[in-house]
């Protein structure tokens, strides 16, 4: 674990320098005093309160897929209760095995996982840093790091032992419409993660990649969330001009210091254009709850206690158009393979993708017609270059001969 810490943050000599382990309990007590799902609006009239309450608090025991899809279409964040307990789509199936297997006391006796290495960070060259689960669980006990290491592993499906994690939970029916499933596991971007986080660890403010939406289910522990709607500018949500030189880009600094400054400034400058309609939503996620984050929403998460969770990103019919525009530029080769599969399985979506390309005058790099066009241009360029060289060679020899006579 010492090696992992040194590799992950080589410029930090003392991981306890800010004394966060001493001030953190008071912060947790403070946020828990407020009603859950509190909202902050910069506008004095709180015009947003006239809209649908964010986030929507739902129960899988009564929530049908069709009802959830409406929330997804409207980009409404949701907290859905009772999914691991065995409810899904308004029906009872069976509880997730993770309810028992992912408890900390149970994990400490799990011979299949204890010796398996999980990713808990990256070095400066973006190479994965992995540690044995047994070592990491020992690290969480009595940990005093300001911002501890955090297991955030996506490669467990490739492991003969760790792939058992896939049997410990089920993708809820609300999120099974994942169109990236048409692409091979090796080609699609990482999309599912097993999470083990000590208190004070977390993820910094971000938007999920390629305009995907996400769901996150907590099995053990409590997480603190903050969400900003898509219309809030990035620099405002991140509070870039409010970060002090002695503060790191870590979730704990964001929640304890930067976020309160953002809200104070938003209130003070609520008449300014950049803070027009500013709002954010904070809440605590408890064991057994699943958070749905729609595409385009800024969000950050802080572990208030030691936690175990699972999260996945997905593309459905409801956010396909946005995901397509991001994927065709961010994952060019995958986008072409995906489009070919869509033509076979979902021709209506393939037509939507082609229509978007036509509207934007977007040419796909790996379209065979485009590949052939580039090849012809390259051949023409090489041919022209050969002609130029053959034209210049005699002239060069003639000049040399002339100089010799002179």
Provide the descriptors you would attach to this structure in a database record.
disordered C terminus, single chain, 14 helices, 20% strand, 406 residues, Monooxygenase, five-stranded antiparallel beta sheet, seven-stranded mixed beta sheet, Jelly Rolls, alpha+beta
Describe the structure.
The protein has 406 residues and is α+β, with helices and mostly antiparallel strands. The protein folds into two domains: 2-318, Jelly Rolls, CATH 2.60.120; 321-360, Up-down Bundle (Monooxygenase). It is built from 14 helices and 16 strands. It has helices at 2-8, 20-33, 65-73, 98-101, 104-107, 111-114, 133-140, 165-168, 234-238, 251-268, 320-330, 332-345, 347-360, 368-405; strands at residues 38-41, 56-59, 78-81, 87-88, 91-92, 117-122, 128-132, 151-153, 192-197, 202-206, 213-220, 223-228, 279-285, 289-293, 298-303, 307-314. The strands form four sheets. It has a seven-stranded mixed sheet, with no helix packed on it. Strands 1-13-12-15-10 form a five-stranded antiparallel sheet. α11 (320-330) crosses α13 and α12 (332-345) packs across α13. It starts with a helix and ends with a helix. The relative contact order is 0.14.
What are the low-pLDDT stretches, counting only 5+ consecutive residues below 50? 44-50, 396-406
From the spread of the alpha carbons, the general shape counts as globular
The CATH architecture of the largest domain can be named as Sandwich
User: What gyration radius follows from the Cα positions, in whole Å?
Assistant: 26 Å
Number of spatially distinct domains: 2
Our measurement of the CA-to-CA distance between the termini, rounded to an integer number of angstroms, reads: 79 Å
Estimated helix fraction: 25-40%
| CATH homologous superfamily assignment of the largest domain | Cupin
Number of helices: 14
Spatial order of strands in the largest sheet: 2-3-14-11-16-9-8
CATH topology of the largest domain: Jelly Rolls
